[in-house]
Amino acid sequence: MRRPYEDPVSFFEDDDEPRRVRSQPRGAAASGATTTPDARTLRTRRAIVGVGALLLLILLALVVRGCLDSRADNAIKDYNREIAAIVRESDTQVGAPFFQLLSEGGSESPQDLATGISSFRVAAQRQLEQARALEVPDELTEAHRSALMAFELRRDGLDAIAQKVRPALGDEGDAADEAISGIASQMAAFLASDVLWQTRATPLIRATFDEREIGGQDVAATRNFLQGTDWLQEQTVAERLGQSLAGGGGGGEGDDEPAPGLHGTGIESVRAGDLTLEPGAANRIPIGTEALVVSFTNQGESDELDVEVVVEIQPETGDPIRVRRTVDTVAQGQTAEVSIPLEEKPEAGQAVTITAAVRPVPGEEKTDNNELEYQAAFVAE
């Protein structure tokens, strides 16, 4: 018998439904929140990342510093190599040939000698400009300043000597002495340039190499521009130019008093090979003549020392050719002969005036027989 009413699906009532229990992950909070690493784990991870970043920065800094140091070392080595080449050229291509030319000055005309020295001055200026154009590392600023000063001293010294060599060879007496003194004083500029290299430029470059521990380098240095300190003496300059100081006279030492008694010389003759020149005549000298021979006699009462003989050939046009030679000793009453080389001659066929003179010796009062003059022409044989 059916009951009055009975819900056929009552067994599906909520209270009677089976409950599904959702499992939670291990370690999850009882409240059901999303899981996260604990604070200690976070700190550890952050520390590892921070240390790694720091190590990377240190490594990058070391790499950058190493590159900068290498670049700086290379710049120092490049500068040393370049300045060494310039000073080496200054020593060997300017200094050495300049002093060789000056030593042969007695056989050159004043014009040719001045022109030759001027060419060395131009080379010295070019070397100074090359040095100024170099890229100079900060560590070598002082060394470079000293090197530039040395190059300037060399250029200025050559310029001054080129201007003084003409009066030194072409003038006589006090004017020539003053020019010779000026040349000797410029030798001190060359010495100063060497000292600047030896005491400043080279030591400063070497100290920079040592400080940065750069090895295997030949430090830039001069081989000396000045070819001997004897060039600082006026007497040396005069001798190398084939001159005698008027103040020094023929007695060797300018401050010495001449010996008591008469002093003097007299010129006897001038020969060109087998031809004895005649005053007042038109002398025809073979163009191949290599030297003129001047004869003179010591007419005084004492031996004479360092007697200077000068021959000048004055063409109709152009500069005179002047050659000097010194006779070390002429005994009392002796006749001496001195050969005057003719390394330079006027053009063939050109009329010239030849003057041969013996410079007065100390104590000489009568000088009207110390000079002879000839009219001549050098002719083809």
Explain the layout of strands and helices:
Elements: H1 39-103, H2 110-132, H3 141-170, H4 173-211, H5 234-240, E1 265-272, E2 275-276, E3 282-286, E4 291-298, E5 304-315, E6 321-330, E7 335-341, E8 351-358, E9 371-379
Parallel strand pairs: 3-9
Antiparallel strand pairs: 1-2, 1-4, 4-7, 5-6, 5-8, 8-9
Description:
- 43% of the residues lie in helices and 18% in strands.
- The strands form 2 sheets. A 5-stranded mixed beta sheet has the order 3-9-8-5-6, with no helix packed on it. A 4-stranded antiparallel beta sheet has the order 2-1-4-7, with no helix packed on it.
- Residues 8-14, 27-33 and 249-255 have low confidence and may be disordered.
- A hairpin with a 5-residue loop joins β5 (304-315) and β6.
- α1 (39-103) runs antiparallel to α2 and α3 packs antiparallel against α4 (173-211).
- It has 2 domains: 61-240; 265-379, Immunoglobulin-like (Sandwich), CATH 2.60.40.
- It starts with 38 loop residues before the first helix and ends with a strand.
- It has 5 helices and 9 strands, in the order αααααβββββββββ.
- It is elongated, with a radius of gyration of 47 Å.
Total domain units: 2
Task: Give the CA-based shape.
Answer: elongated
Radius of gyration: 47 Å
Order of H and E elements = HHHHHEEEEEEEEE
Provide the spatial order of strands within the biggest beta sheet. 3-9-8-5-6
Helix tally equals 5
Which structural class do the helices and strands define?
alpha+beta
Instruction: Give the biggest sheet.
Output: 5 strands, mixed
Range of helix content = 40-55%
**Strand portion:** 15-25%
Organism: uncultured Solirubrobacteraceae bacterium
Protein name: CARDB domain-containing protein
Region (Disordered): 1-38, 243-267
Keywords: Membrane, Transmembrane, Transmembrane helix
